[in-house]
Hints:
Elements: E1 2-7, H1 13-21, E2 25-30, E3 35-37, E4 42-44, H2 47-54, E5 59-60, H3 68-77, E6 81-85, H4 93-96, E7 103-107, E8 115-116, H5 119-125, E9 130-137, E10 147-154, H6 161-184, E11 200-201, H7 217-226, E12 233-237, E13 240-253, E14 260-262, E15 267-270, E16 275-284, E17 290-291, H8 292-298
Parallel strand pairs: 1-2, 1-6, 2-5, 6-7, 8-11
Antiparallel strand pairs: 3-4, 7-9, 9-10, 12-13, 13-16, 14-15, 15-16, 16-17
Amino acid sequence: MKIVFMGTPDFSVPFLKKLIQSRHEVEAVFSQPDKPIGRKHIIVPTPVKKIAVENALPVYQPDCLKSEEVMDIFHKISPDIIIVIAYGKILPKEILNAAKYGCINVHGSLLPYYRGAAPIQWSVLNGDSQTGVTIIQMDEGIDTGDILCTAKTDIGINETSDELFEKLSVLGADTLIKCLDEMENGDITPMPQPKGNFGYAQKITKSMSPIDWNKSAFEIHNKVRGLQSWPCAQTVINGKNFKIHKTALSDKTGNKAGCVVDNKNVLTVCCGDGRCIDILELQQEGKKRMDTKSFLVGNLVEINTVLGE
């Protein structure tokens, strides 16, 4: 197949690499415009653009897709299919209909569950034990198109959203190649998604960071895993703000939410359900991330200290 690939972040990269290695032909790559990064505002190419340039593929980064110039590109290429992986813009109807097989998208959940911007984070935040990827035929709705292919995977009890991103990108890339072959052979029957409310994966925001120690140990552990590595779960320890990077469920119990019940090598903190979690890695505001054992060598956090106050 002749392919136009549309993607931007790291999650999209394994898909593009897999397509380049396949028997299919990537004719052009669309990615979001490059943006300034860091304090020095250095313009850095998107991860997808970097791979495209390394493989001598034409790259287009329009600010707006609704222009004659953009449509001329699609008409000139006349692609068999347009593949969209975390591109970051809503496609106009003209592009959705610009290829023989239309546009397909790989979504990081088992649709219809977790439509929206952050399906991977929300599957971890909600403590799900299983997730997957879904390839859909794109329509004008948000993640509402007919289902073409799916693949499932388990979520580990300590697996972070960052780790799950990597796992799903590899799983999704393999599934995409299989799906393209089946489409060409006429072996796929599109399945309409069921109607109803299956949960919407709203965008992750900084306002979600503070830990509410009145929540259960499982919920707090999931927040730490789900908000990794941005914006990170946060709490106050001895009057100072900390990012909490890694936790584990503990066998210990307590009777006051947020109260430190053990400070040997880790900080064991009681949660709202009486169960505890161990804080394994943390980062004081303005300082480097470190394991809790090293932090406690030079910082006293007494038993019965209440976090979040």
